[in-house]
Amino acid sequence: MIAKIIYGETCQGTLNYVLGKEGMRILGYGNTFSQKVSPKFFGDVLHFQGQRNATKNRYAHISLNLPHGEHLNDKTFLKISKEYMEKMGFGEQPYVVVRHTDTTHEHVHIVTTIVKEDGKVLPIYNSHKRSMATRRYLEKKYGLSQAPTTKRNRQLPIYRLPEEQFGMDAEKGTKFYLQDVLNSINQKYKVRSFDELARLVKPYHIELRQTKNEMGRIGVAFGLNNQKGYRTRFLSGSAVHRNLSGPKLQKVFDAHSKSKLLPMHRKRLLKQIETTYGLFKTIRPHDLKDVLKGYQGIDIELETKGDVIEGYTIYDKSKYVFGKRGLGKHIRMQNRLEIFGNGNEPTQIDIESKQFKLEVQKAIKEALTTSYLKSLKQDGLLSEHIITRNFGDIVPNLKASEKFRFLERYIPRNQRIEFRKAVENAFPIIKKRIYELETKKEKEILEKKFKLIGKVLEKGIFNVGTEQGSIRLLFQALGVKYHDNQLSFTQSNKHTIPVKLGNLPFPENMEKHVSTGFVRQNHLMLEMLTEQSSENSPKMTGSAIFLPMIFPKLYERMDPVYKWQYERVALGSYVKYAEQMHAPFEKSAKDYITLFNAKGFYFVKGEKGFEVKSIYTNNKASYPLPKRTSLYLNSIPDLSVRLQRQRTVIKGLFEEGRNDLKNLWVGHLMERGVYDKVAFILTSEKAYPNLHREIVQHHMDNGLRQSLVQVSQRQSSVQQKRLLRKGVYAVSSLLGGRGKNQDEAFNGFKDELTDWSKYKRKGVGMG
Known about the structure:
Blueprint: E1 2-8, H1 12-20, E2 25-30, H2 39-50, E3 59-65, H3 74-87, E4 95-100, E5 107-113, H4 127-142, H5 168-188, H6 194-201, E6 206-212, E7 218-224, E8 235-236, H7 237-240, H8 246-257, H9 262-279, E9 280-282, H10 288-296, E10 299-305, E11 308-315, E12 321-322, H11 337-340, E13 348-349, H12 354-373, H13 382-387, H14 391-400, H15 402-409, H16 416-459, H17 471-477, E14 480-483, E15 486-489, E16 497-498, H18 516-529, H19 547-550, H20 552-555, H21 560-582, H22 589-599, E17 601-606, E18 609-614, E19 623-624, H23 627-634, H24 639-655, H25 661-671, H26 675-685, H27 693-714, H28 718-728, H29 757-762
Antiparallel strand pairs: 1-3, 2-4, 3-5, 4-5, 6-7, 7-8, 9-13, 10-11, 11-12, 14-15, 15-16, 17-18, 18-19
Pfam families: Relaxase
InterPro entries: Endonuclease_MobA/VirD2
Organism: Flagellimonas yonaguniensis
């Protein structure tokens, strides 16, 4: 199901279209004193209520569209519509639900106002994101086909062109078809002129005509012509939609044309195209589209006149569209006959070109790196791995590489054996070069870590020293070790830096497992605390909040002032990550709070807005939410009651002993879809996720239940259980010790994942 929301300043035109369509059926009204009111009376009620506030977006036009071939009866469609309105916060507003039958897919239109009876306005923050979550919830509840939740490159629905018909109703259908396509085009592309807009809408049978009145005012009109006998009169842009008038479109075009980023995008594209030309000996004109897409990821459309290709239009990832005049004459096919002027000669890569040799080097480097990352034991550094590899070791990775397959595709068949031999012959030279580069890079990284350690000790971020050997905790958390007055990487002795600290004792109970990903996060965090990071430095991710779980002995020794700084930044990083994970389930501002509460985060309202805190950090540590998010939460009608309810949820987590980072960690892994690891923790570690039941249920249905069955079956053997602990998931060593009673076999699904009663007691339900 697809849900669309359009906000507008007036409702009369929308009501005329929705209620005037031939074959329409009024399924029902919302919040009217009777279901037998006339459409005219409802229109008057809606108009007068909307006029109680001067906001521009005072009316809402919503459409709920089913996929082709899917059917709902009127009663069910009305029920879904009412539930959609309730979840979106329109449940107490007057609205009408109207079913149309003019297209091949079933759909309803809902018209309402965001102005309440007292003249105040309903909050519409994040309404499109919340609409996606509501739509997903209803799809699951009513067994409807799920619409895609991610953006996909696809053409607009040309099939929606109105059927051949005449009269006023045809004009209404034309207006809304024009509105749908033109608004979608302007969202998808950064259009810079009326001529460009005309080219973009031509495939949808839309014609554009520019006008100018006696005062010199620019105007525009749109009409339909499918070249098959169906043609409409032209409608002015302002009649189609208020934002499609000539002056407003020209203002948008000027802003796009004057953007400072436009020359940068043009320069990048020119370089990408020249690089492509430099790789190929010949390119058959009709192959250029596949070549640019496969090599550079550039989308183009060939411009043809009969069988002759005159040029191409580029649809750039920046949303700009570049025609044959937009990038200069030098890259045009007519001016590059040495590449395009060979008639029907097949597209071939120039194996003697400098660019080809560079691409081979990239493919070999990618294969070497992939073989290192996929190796079972990453005992040494990348450079050490590279120097021990033979060509045969990387052949499987080469064959799996898209880069290598692209190159091989455009090598003539009679030269492919020579091509593979050339790659094999180039391997030793490239291997040596990459080895030298990686060696140099590793030395620089080790020196950088050494300097960072000095800064950390100088500022006293951690209470560590040499007397009890606790400084080794800092070394370990940065992926280095100390031995014989030398500092080196944890997994290698290849590079060393002299550090005379004497014979350091080894601290008891040091963490044995160190994840390279968390070492990287810890490094970034310490750079931030020592103010060595810059705006261009990599930013910490949501996983930074788990550092005290990964390196508990070190973080127990953290200075309170620096710990407050760390927790503040870690909270902010996690909130941004969690907001993305919550999007498919967040139907309202109430859900925003509920989903965070289930994870152990709660919100406090202050004079400057909202702050978020957590049960995993000090109570003084907080992160201020952006102004827009604070406004979003302020839109909750019973906000004080909702904030008060947080206490019950948080208290429940404490009472159940779920105020540990490992509970958040299990939920984190679940959200990332790492179900085999989650299943191992649930069955062996008995650490349950701090996650809302709706999200848990989603993951159970998505594959977690199957993983739980598989792991529980494997755990019937003690020997297999031990292998699981050692080989399947190393995080067990990070999560602390286990008692003997935790080794009991997993008992089916009788666990907290399916026992919703305790969650309902705690009041974490949504909706």
